[in-house]
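Handout, tutorial session.
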Amino acid sequence: MNNKTKKAICILSGGMDSTLASYIAKNDGYEIIAVHFNYGQRTQDRELKAFRDICEDLKILEKYEIDIPFFTQIGASALTDKNIDVPTGGVETGVPITYVPFRNGIFLSITAAIAEKEGATAMYIGVVQEDSSGYPDCTDLFISDMKRAINQGTKEDTHIDIKTPLVHLSKAQIVLEAKKLNVPLEHTWSCYKEEEEACGVCDSCRLRLNGFKIANQIDPIAYKAL
């Protein structure tokens, strides 16, 4: 591989966090290959649009749109099972019902296969530990264990670093960092429930809106009247 072009695979959902992580990867000098997963989530079509818009913004030439149908078969999450309501009360204890079983582990495994094929040396994922909804697959420890397993289970000359530039940031810090890097936040989508206008009351909308409020910034996407 030419030393002048180092490649990174960015897991890009179309949300604010993964979009900022992708901009950081570009800023770090990587040629980006973007990966997006359609896994039967409620806002699948809207997230896919966000992904494509952001790929255009970043001038990403190579991208993968991967379909993972079995998450809807498993269910057990409000994101993939229409029989489970997305909570809007704002108070949940333990692991939230919006947690999709081992989702990031599966995403990282598939992305590792793509990274090995493409000769990439880094994978970027926008996990946030301190200000997240309490998902067990968003922690430093989980990511470091996955990195070790991936490098153990790939060819000897494959060396992949999993980069989590946002893991210890708050949502407000993420908003400010995104502003600094001129990230087009108007193209991102975070809502768990709606695809036209964001609901403003699900966990993801609440975290996002609170981040903008603390950062003293205005969120450029449309929300339903609250």
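The second record follows below. Compare its token runs with those of the first.
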Amino acid sequence: MNQRLIDVIDRASAANSAEARVAAFDWGALTGELDSYGCAVLPKLLSPAECRNIAALYPDGSHFRSHIIMAGHGFGKGEYRYFKYPLPDLIGGIRTALYPHLASIANEWNARMGMDQRFPADHASYLQHCHDAGQTKPTPLLLQYAPGDFNCLHQDLYGDLWFPVQVAILLSEPDRDFTGGEFALTEQRPRMQSRVEVVPLRQGDAVAFAVHNRPVQGAKGNYRVNLRHGVSRIRSGMRHTVGIIFHDAR
């Protein structure tokens, strides 16, 4: 069997595995969490071995298209690398498998907020829209934090087209590999103080969260709230995370 055929089989196997594990979650409950709080945890999306294997990719620049030092851009302190296409099979498979579930939520949110944009049911079609708009660079990334590092509150918007939900997967184990480094989400409601949601995660857990806006039901109908996300200061050890962003960038 030649290497090209082996690679095709491996990608198909990874895609099937990703689809099965994503489908096993209670998406009704997850949708309720996202509607209520702007985020939802997908526990044990990746195994410890998968987490270690992905984190081990970080030093090898051949997997990535760019390397960002956060301090140089005012993003905080730490660093990350954007994967290049083709993505690692597991990350690409998870991205593809998650998208239809999240697209359904995004379409409902846009309808409630009075926004016209709707997202296609499959990820390949959405990526084609991005590419037609000149957004062709892959956005999944691998982040690395050392003691004293943090990520400022921000929104991952990379062009005219952006997807309203993204996912972060914690690859390191809290209190063993690192301390500190909590994932935090802030929500600004009109004429109100910001609400903070701190999301406890273990190794392999993923959090799906709103990128920019989400609808909230008020006394006079739905209104938009604005969200930002970040990571608190790492106090010791090393923290690795995979970020899965569903739109491509310019």
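Points raised in discussion: The helical segments are 3-23, 27-37, 48-55, 89-112, 123-132.
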